[in-house]
Amino acid sequence: MISKINLEHVLFLDIETVPEFEDFSALTAEKKALWKQKSKYQRKDEYTAEEFYPRAGIWAEFGKIICISVGYFASDSPSRAFRITSFYGEEKEILSQFNSLIERHFKHPKFILCAHNGKEFDFPYIARRMIINKMKLPSKLNLFGKKPWEVPHLDTLDLWKFGDYKHYTSLKLMTNVLGIPSPKDDIDGSEVYGVFYKENNIERIINYCEKDTLAVAQILLRLRGEMLLDKAEIAYI
After folding, report:
1. Of 221, 182, 216, which Cα lies nearest the Cα of 69?
2. How many Cβ atoms sit within 10 Å of the Cβ of residue 104?
3. Burial, 126: exposed, middle or buried (Cβ in 10 Å; 0-12, 13-18, 19+)?
4. Strand order of the sheet with strand 153-155?
5. Which of 7, 14, 75, 146 could form a cystine bridge with 213, CB 3.0-4.6 A?
6. What pLDDT is stored for residue 57 in this prediction?
7. What does the pLDDT read at residue 199?
8. Is 65 helix (H, G, I), strand (E, B) or coil?
9. SS3 of 30, please?
10. How far is CA 39 from CA 42, 79, 92, 145, in A?
């Protein structure tokens, strides 16, 4: 039961991704052909492969991570305290810093990673990008040979399904129905490409990523029947 999980043992996270290159023209001829094949089902006859390219960030083979935000309940505080920090810059450095955080502070088996739709997006995306960048996977992402109950991952979307595995609820909708402040009050995922490549505004993306991370923690609190975090309990470091 989620009520038995020690919140201090949970690392909440969210990632923001974009296409590896700003323009389709930057891809090699082989990669263009592969993208055309990969995106065929999603774009159907409505878009050309080039027109659809701004959405390439959702696939680890064609995208890259530009921000990882993490949040955790501090164990060294006499009262409830939630701390949020972000990694951004060059992708390999982002992944290296995230890996160091996990290996230094969240490596013990008691710790788990938590994200919304994390099992289908955030966790495998980070793992794939680490392998592409020739990096060793941290223990929390190395799932080879592990049984389902040994996987140290918690997914708020999974929890909300209550066994209805065909069901999908976005983070925006879930925060709305649960009475949690929306993390999408400025931008949403579809706008990250433009904010990154056209506006060059990484601070806006970091802010958005941190709001999503906080929202995931708030959702878990609501699912546990606990009070939401208020501003005085949240610190950005």
Report:
1. 216
2. 8
3. buried
4. 153-155, 112-115, 10-19, 63-73, 82-88, 234-236
5. 14
6. 97
7. 96
8. strand
9. helix
10. 5, 49, 25, 30
Which residues have C-beta within 8 Å of that of residue 208, sequence separation ≥ 6?
16, 183, 184, 186, 187, 192
Q: How far is CA 226 from CA 80, 81, 156, 166, 230, in A?
A: 12, 14, 15, 28, 12
Helix, strand, or coil (residue 78): coil
Instruction: Annotate 105-172 with DSSP letters as a single string.
Output: HS-STT-EEEETTTTTTHHHHHHHHHHHTT-PPPTTT--TT--GGG--EEEHHHHHHTT-TT----HH
Q: What pLDDT does residue 126 have?
A: 98
Nearest to 220 by CA among 82, 107, 99, 126: 82
Q: How high is the pLDDT of residue 214?
A: 98
Neighbours of 200 (CB within 10 A): 8
**Which residues, given as ranges, of the chain have pLDDT below 50?**
none
DSSP state for residue 26 in the 8-state scheme: G
For residue 185, the model assigns a pLDDT of 80
Q: Distance between CA atoms of 35 and 197, rounded to whole angstroms?
A: 20
Q: pLDDT value at position 125?
A: 98
Q: What is the reported pTM? A: 0.95
Q: What does the alpha-carbon distance between residue 190 and residue 196 come to, in Å, rounded to a whole number?
A: 11
Concatenating the DSSP letter of every residue in 154-190 gives: EEHHHHHHTT-TT----HHHHHHHTT---TTSS--GG
Burial state string for 40-61 with b = 16 or more CB within 10 A and e = fewer than 16: eeebeeeeebeebbbbbbebbe
Q: How far apart are CA 192 and CA 163, in angstroms?
A: 32
Q: How many residues in the chain?
A: 237
